[in-house]
Design a protein that fits this description.
Glucosamine-6-phosphate deaminase; alpha/beta; 7-stranded parallel beta sheet
Length: about 250
């Protein structure tokens, strides 16, 4: 399994940002769109910071970029401080020249009976654009990718899911307590992620070392959804030395 270990998360983030920039530029040169799958959370922040820098200081344009975020809490108002819409605008979209219409994030405001149709349309839209060129991922301590918690099926699509208790505890700080963390989310499925032509999973810090060991070296099982990535021919794990510290 391709695992790249960097001295620190800054160097790793710059490498991933450069990869994304190369993809955007090579698509631009061909007059094509780049279709990116994006993640939230603390892990990709350095990548977004570097992409913003490349936009401001090196003329990288996002006019030909279409994005699909992995997930959003449910229910969640886009204007809420904890929404993934707010996160993406604060960390990336507000600072680059991407077209608003090219941004796709699961909608946390839907009525329950609208969710299934929304999820199918999300999948269809990705497909009609030719699929995801690159999906970036973090990993949760449950082994989730997106919000595909333990028990998720390898062929799962975009859908409403119930968050694991550990995931809600890890999010408690953002919400001022676990009780206020939504119990549900809308997430791309493992199957959706798998269809991307390239997948990069990033992890930093000691806190992720144990789950990275399981994800990379453990038995492939729905108990640790990230282990399904071992079956992909197009995945790269990008780690800092701390997250890689338990690998043999
Ligand atoms: C976020 C997402 C999650 C996070 C994971 C790690 O869109 O899908 O899988 O990547 O929970 O979160 P951080 O990076 O905050 O440790």
């Amino acid at each position: 399994l391709p695992v790249s270990v960097y001295n620190n998360q800054h160097e790793a983030s710059v490498a991933v940002a450069n990869k994304i920039a190369d993809l955007i530029r090579s698509k631009q040169a061909k007059g094509e769109k780049a279709v990116l799958g994006l993640a939230t959370g603390v892990t990709p922040i350095g990548v977004y910071t570097e992409l913003v820098r490349l936009h401001k200081e090196a003329g990288l344009s996002f006019k030909n970029v279409i994005t699909f975020n992995l997930d959003e809490y449910y229910p969640m108002k886009p204007t809420a401080a904890q929404s993934y819409v707010t996160f993406m605008y604060d960390n990336l979209f507000s600072h680059i020249d991407i077209e608003k219409d090219n941004i796709n994030i699961p909608d946390g405001t839907l009525d329950k009976d609208e969710v299934v149709a929304f999820c199918l349309a999300y999948e269809k839209k990705i497909e009609e654009l030719g699929g995801l060129d690159l999906q970036i991922l973090g990993i949760g301590r449950t082994g989730h990718i997106g919000f595909n918690e333990p028990g998720s099926a390898p062929n799962s699509g975009t859908r409403m899911v119930t968050l694991d208790d550990l995931t809600r505890r890890d999010a408690a700080r953002d919400f001022g307590g676990k009780a206020d963390v939504p119990t549900k989310a809308i997430t791309m499925g493992i199957g959706t992620i798998f269809k991307a032509r390239e997948i990069i999973l990033m992890a930093w810090n000691k806190k992720k070392a144990q789950i990275i060991k399981k994800a990379v070296e453990g038995e492939i099982s729905g108990d640790v959804p990230a282990t399904y990535l071992q079956l992909s021919q197009h995945v790269e794990f990008v780690l800092d030395a701390d997250a890689a510290s338990e690998l043999t």
